[in-house]
Each structure stands twice: as C-alpha cells, then as structure tokens.
Please model this.
Amino acid sequence: MLTRIDHVMICMPDLRQGIEAYTRIGFSVHPGGDHTSGGTHNAIAFFEDDYLELLSVRGGRQHETGATLMDFLARGGGLRYIALQSDDLAADVAAMRRRGVDVSEPSDGGRRTPAGQELRWRFARLGPEHPLPILFIQHVTPLAERRRGHTGEHPNGVLATERVYIAVPDVAKAAETYARVLGMPVPRVQRGNVIKADMAVFDLGETGLTVAQPAEPGPAAEALARRGPGPFQVLYRTRSMDAAAKWMADHGMPPPARGIRNTGEQAMLVPPTDACGVYVGLFGPA
Model:
C-alpha cells in the first residue's frame, strides 16, 4: 500500500545555487551524489522519515537527460514530482492497473553518494493517460543506511513534511482523478486559509497530498497563473516558527508572510523567489 509522502523533488538549473537557497531557509542540505541512470545529481535534506531532494543536471551531461526535464529547467525549475512511498510496489502497480490507471512496471533506480555508498530503490511512473506530478517508490536500501551522515537536525527546526499542494483548475474533477490513481475515497473539500484555495486532502500516513483550486487571490492563484496546474508548495512541521524566522533574517532573507491555517495553527510562507520557484510553508509553535 501507499504509506506516506516519501520526498519531494525540486529541480533547478544550478544545484549549487539551490543548496545555497535552501541553506538560507534553514535546511541542512548535504550532497546526495550522482544518479546511476541519466546525467543528474542531487542534494538531500533528511527529516524524521522523509526528505527534501534538490535535483539538477550534471555539467555537460544534458545529452543523458530527458527532454521533459530540460524543458522544465528551461522554464526556471521548481517542484516537479511528489514521490509516494509504497511497502509493496508490485502490488500497488497491479492494483492501479485493475482500476484502469496508466502506470509503468516497477523499474530499478539508484545513486552513488559522495562517500561511495550505493543506494537502491524501485520506482514506477504514471503514463500519458494519467499525467499527474506523482511517482511511486519502494526503497531497497533500509532507512538507517539511507540516513547515514544525516542528523535530521535543521536550523529552522523542521521535523517532517506535513503536506504537499498541487494547483488545479477544478478541485472536484482533480480529486476524482487522484482518488482513482491512489485507490482512496474522494476527500471532502475544505478551505485552505493560507493558500486561499478550496482543497481536497488525501491522507497518506502522517502526510497529506492536497489538490487545491484557487478561491481568491493568493499563493494557489499565483502559482496556477505563473506555471499552470502542478505542485507549488510544501508544508513542513517545525519545532519553532520564531527560530526559523530568525535564521532566515540572519541570512539576509525578508520576513516570511504569516497566516492562520484552517486548523487554527500559525503558518508562514517563504515565496518562490527565495525557494527556487516553490512556496515553502512552515507551521508549529512560536
């Protein structure tokens, strides 16, 4: 079954600049290494059970990289994929196909870390009949080994991914499509106060995959107008909002905008200009 959001993939033309940007936001980012297929490399910020991936093309390796990634980077990059973790990928793929979902067979993936460690996983992608910005992953390398060299401690106090948001023009239609792909009931529609959108949240373990239709001017409307439908925000749970804001201020960033979630909790948003095309949300105690 699909158990949680495993990681988000944020792509940028220059990995070094991406690392610098997310370090200013308060993430402890470490070089992740080179992927064994394609000409890409990445950097990783691990949390409790999930992580943030920054990805770019290795210098001079554009010829090994798919045209769709190069097109995405040419438009400035941003949040490209949300990887959903499976505890039995073959069974999940088979179940999706029984529901009429266009999805690939599981394939092998991997990367070599700068320390020479080989990390392995299996993954599946949706086909052209269901062009959603999600993919499915089952790790072969155990979590403890994948976390080697990562403390999970971040200056902004981030503990885990809470939600990822996808801008859509029609939340009811999108919720039906995602429900079919995920094999889950269609969630009720609720108002997202901070993103200013009507949204449907698919609960995957302790994480939420959210489709959001703009209801008024705000982050969701801005993202939809700027990039069209697609993922635009990641929300993280932090130990301290004030500590996160202080770190950003100390590193030359303007104060993030603050608001109140529909849960009653305070949240703040780092804008796409400071986060490689992505809204980065933080919520938690002061």
In short: Residues 158-283 form a domain with the 2,3-Dihydroxybiphenyl 1,2-Dioxygenase; domain 1 fold (CATH 3.10.180.10).
